[in-house]
Amino acid sequence: MNPNPMQNWNAEIAQFVEAAHRTAEHGLVRCSSGNLSWRLNDELCLVTATHSWLGKLMPEQVAICRVADGAPVNNVKPSVEAGFHVGVLGSRLDIRVVLHFQSPAATAFACRRDAGTVDYAVIPEIPVYVGPVAVVPYLPPGSAELAQAIVAALAGRNLALLRNHGLVTVGRDLDDALQKASFFELACQILLAAGDQAQALPDSAVRALQNIGHG
Prior knowledge:
Elements: H1 5-8, H2 10-25, E1 35-39, E2 44-48, E3 62-66, H3 82-91, E4 97-101, H4 104-110, H5 125-130, E5 134-136, H6 144-153, E6 159-162, E7 166-171, H7 174-194, H8 203-214
Parallel strand pairs: 5-6
Antiparallel strand pairs: 1-2, 1-4, 2-3, 4-7, 6-7
Helix pairs in contact: 3-6, 4-7
């Protein structure tokens, strides 16, 4: 491994910083809430630094971490949630990006007692891009228990609600993760606005849309 990883990954870090800024511009995070990771290769990933604000992220606030254990190799301390980032990246080889966000409407559902029984497929983008939603019980932020629960929840799904905490989604690339988070926030906004008059898509439509998503 090169002793100066920052020199090798300047272009990728610039893309990563720009994606972090766009995440904040979409209203998916507030201040220092939320964190982002991006797998560079089989061994390394980028993770936002601890206490960093995604909307104001600077290149020097990007940790280059080992996927195997989350340890930084460029002397930047990663987010306290790095454990679930590297856990998901290590177990989901089909994705490269993990985004933890706390957009208002989606986080409202993460705080609802019925979060696990809500049908979020009120717009076509949910079955096409997001799919079924997992629910993770409240566990202390940054804990090994939370990391393990998130990794398990995302083994076969692309988005998880963390009770009384926020959400985690994954993507093939930075845009894909941002799109999933944004569409899910939109669906939650619609559900809140429509209240008990909200009507989900019929199962037949969901199955047809899922085929589009898998095509």
